[in-house]
Amino acid sequence: MVEVARLRHGSGIGQPLTRRDGVLKVTGQASYAADNHPPGLLHAVLATARIARGRVAFLDLAAARAHPGVVEVMTPANRPALAQDPDDKSVPFSFRLDLLQNDRVRYAGQPIAVVIARTLEAATEGAALLAPRYEAEPVEASLDAADVFVPEVVGAGAPGETWHGDVDAGLAAAEHRIDATFETPMQFHNAMEPHAVVAAWEGNRLSLDMPTQGLSLTQMRLAALFGIQPEEIHIRSPFIGGGFGSKLLSGPQVLGILAARLVGRPVKLVLRREQMYGPVTHRAPTRQRLRLGAAADGGLTAIHHHVRTATSRFDDFLEPSAGVSHTLYAAPAIATTNEAVRLDTGTPGFMRAPGEASGSIALESAIDEMAYSCGMDPLEFRLRNYAEIEPVSGKPFSSKALRECYVEGAASFGWAGRPLLPRSMRDENGMLVGWGLGTATFPALMFQGEARAVLRQDGTGLVETGAHDMGQGAWTALAQIAAESLGLDASRLEFRAGRSDLPNAGIAGGSAHTATAGGAIHVAGAQVIARLTEIAVADPRSPLFGAGNIGVVARSGRLVRWDDGSRSEAFGDILARAGLQEVEARGMANADPTAAERYAMHAHGAVFAEVKVDPELGQVRVTRLVGAFAAGRIINPRLVRSQYYGGMIWGLSFALHERAVLDPRTARVVNADLAEYRVPVNADVPSLEAILVDEEDPHVNALGIKGVGEIGITGTAGAIANAIWHATGVRVRHFPVAIEHIV
Ligand code: MOS
Questions:
Q1: What is the average per-residue pLDDT within 260-283?
Q2: Whole-angstrom distance, CA of residue 57 vs CA of residue 61
Q3: Distance between CA atoms of residues 175 and 167, nearest Å
Q4: Is the CB of 244 under 6 A from ligand 1?
Q5: Is any ligand 1 atom within 6 A of the Cβ of residue 245?
Q6: 3-state secondary structure of 257
Q7: Given 121, 658, 710, 740, which residue is catalytic?
Q8: I want to staple 434 with a disulfide (CB 3.0 to 4.6 A). Which of 314, 463, 723, 738 is the partner?
Q9: pLDDT tens readout for residues 6-51
């Protein structure tokens, strides 16, 4: 634990620094992939299928090629060969891609041709001139599809079925029972920056400007697809305008690269907004049945969480919504089961707390219903059923300050004295007022990452890792860890990230990026300091000579004796005397399998919502949201608060706004734009408060980081739905909640 103790003395970790990229972004100087214009650049535009199933029978290639600005049209007939089947997904976290392998159409919005032209306008016109004709086949677009299957795994590898204890007996013995079915919609990624690529080939070397949450994985998959070495691919991804899980490698980006190969010139391809509704994954719809039993004293006797979801016809991602029921409440019997149907849509994928977001809505709503049925306050009920160990796995938690989250959140919100009965509160304008609570949970994950650290004789440092900043502030938080690990002020440190030629930092996903990349940086920095220490303590001319058994710490550019702070030496002096320009080390971090075997590791939180509902119109306004979250060590409280705000706004969006509507006749999304696919705007977002609850976790990883990116969404939507019930007495089990559900 000396490593962790050292950190408290440093300057970097725990400081509420503003984003290093903030000014660049708000002044428009930050350059995103599509801002790149290499010499000779051509523009590519996708033509996409307007049917969801069948084949492309005809494309008017002659008309498109006759356009004066069009250079080439890429179709299955002339698409450059690939070394790997696009349906091969042996690279982790990857999906089957549609890369013009044939004339089949698997979903509406699938790319069917790429038009390459001298201008964006010409490419757009060329794509319109293709005027495709199709042979269409009947489609399936409903969660009620007859062909139901039971999956063996859901999400990224969770079991499709889990049984713990005797659920039927628990339900039979219960005094109170809830049997409720919840529906959550199909949702699409609407990052401000659409998927884009600027691709240039030079022989077999590939240069890419492309937003990605996974530089190394993307490099690996592209290498496999094109039959070249990963090192021959150079990806720059300095700024990412939002990813949400969708920005691993997408098919359209590969089509841009193929287009560049075909024409032998650099090509830019940027998805249009409506083209994001198909080929870049989405969150699948769910129908979740929650059966709960509770004894007369309010103790849960059983939880059965059954999920029906949908995947595509050609791939297998299944929203793992029931996972939250494994961990949140103590019950002697818990079962989670899944079933799914195949729809003629693009493949669903990772999207903002995949599983936990949709699943916690259903669980938290059902828990609220059960609390009321037991005549208990929803907070009291949750404390009554607080899981001291993880119920399904039986493991202790590596740390769990959820009780403190409930207490601190409730105090700040003013929860005490909440009337049990719905429709009990009105404001001065006659609006119905309701208060609701939702519990937040998200696993504390970590992947393998690597970093390199250097200390130079001039007293400056360099830390580099192929990390990704998709807006969450990684570039800032990781630089803080880097500064801390080298005992340098951030102003003396160069921090490089966002490029594929840097050490592999894993993926920015699973809320695990700070733990992964930060963990690697921490190790690399510690190695550098250890080497410098070896040199100093062995040198009779150093004031640190002989400090070996006592140890030294790195602070403000100096090594300082642990026992006697007045005896210290500047890094530069140590290196100069040793005749070294610099010391350099690499560090690797990975999840500790022993910890995962012994402990359940999750971040937690409690979200309190106030809504006001117009009793005549049914219009819902969220007026307050207070979230209290415990996620281990906090690297930068300002950025973490922003992450929680963002999460809570996602939750609000889930509760009241976002929904993609699939036309059952055509399997096309009918609201594939930001006019009709609603996301909250400023006027929808109330006063937000995020409370950072102290939590120390000695087991989760070396830095004690649990991750903060996704947890905020998981408590919030349920809290809002519960508040709507408390305001109106109407239990809406269909999301997003709409006026017609209430009045
Ligand atoms: Mo996330 S859905 O792990 O980017």
A1: 97
A2: 12
A3: 14
A4: yes
A5: yes
A6: helix
A7: 710
A8: 723
A9: 334 344 899 999 999 999 999 999 999 999 999 999 999 999 999 9
pLDDT reported for residue 545: 92
Tokens of 255: 């089509």
Strands (E), 227-382: 233-236, 267-270, 282-283, 286-294, 300-312, 334-343
Tokens encoding 357: 């977001």
Q: Six-digit token pair at 630?
A: 């415990």
Q: First and final CA of the chain: distance in angstroms?
A: 58
Distance 472 CA to ligand 1 centre (A): 12
Given pLDDT bands bounded at 50, 70 and 90, which one contains residue 87?
Answer: very high
Cβ of 354 less than 6 Å from ligand 1: yes
Distance CA 338, CA 349 (A): 16
| Atom number of ligand 1 nearest to Cα 509 | 3
Separation of CA 534 and ligand 1 centre (Å): 41
Query: Average of pLDDT values for 256-271?
Result: 98
- The ranges assigned to domains in the chain are 2-29+447-590, 389-445+596-742
Ligand 1 pocket: which of 244, 317, 469, 513 to mutate (most atoms within 8 A of CB): 244
Q: Which atom of ligand 1 is nearest to the CA of 512?
A: 3
At 214-253, the pLDDT tens digits run: 999 999 999 999 999 999 999 999 999 999 999 999 999 9
Spatial distance between the Cα atoms of 204 and 193, rounded to a whole number of angstroms: 28
Other beta carbons less than 10 A from residue 617's beta carbon: 10
Residue holding tokens 């498109």? Answer: 64
Q: What is the largest CA-CA distance in the chain?
A: 84
Q: Is the backbone of residue 226 left (phi > 0), alpha (psi -120 to 50) or beta?
A: alpha
CA of 663 to the centre of ligand 1 (A): 27
Whose structure tokens read 């290639």? 61
Q: What angle do CA 464, 191, 84 make, to 5 degrees?
A: 70
Give, to the nearest 10 degrees, the angle between helix 251-263 and helix 215-226. 50
Which pTM does this prediction carry? 0.96
With a cut of 0.95, is the ipTM above it?
yes
Residue 152 designated active-site: no
pLDDT in the model for residue 565 = 86
- Looking from the CA of residue 508, the nearest atom of ligand 1 is 4
CB 696 within 8 A of CB 703: no
- 389-445+596-742: CATH architecture: 2-Layer Sandwich (3.30)
CA-nearest of 61, 131, 128, 111 to 259 is: 111
Ligand 1 atom, smallest distance to 351 CA: 2
Tokens of 205: 């070397």
**Residue 592 confidence (pLDDT):** 92
CATH topology (fold) of 2-29+447-590: Aldehyde Oxidoreductase; domain 4 (3.30.365)
Span from the CA of 243 to the centroid of ligand 1 (angstroms): 8
Q: Is the CB of 471 under 6 A from ligand 1?
A: no
Are 2-29+447-590 and 389-445+596-742 equal in CATH topology?
Answer: yes
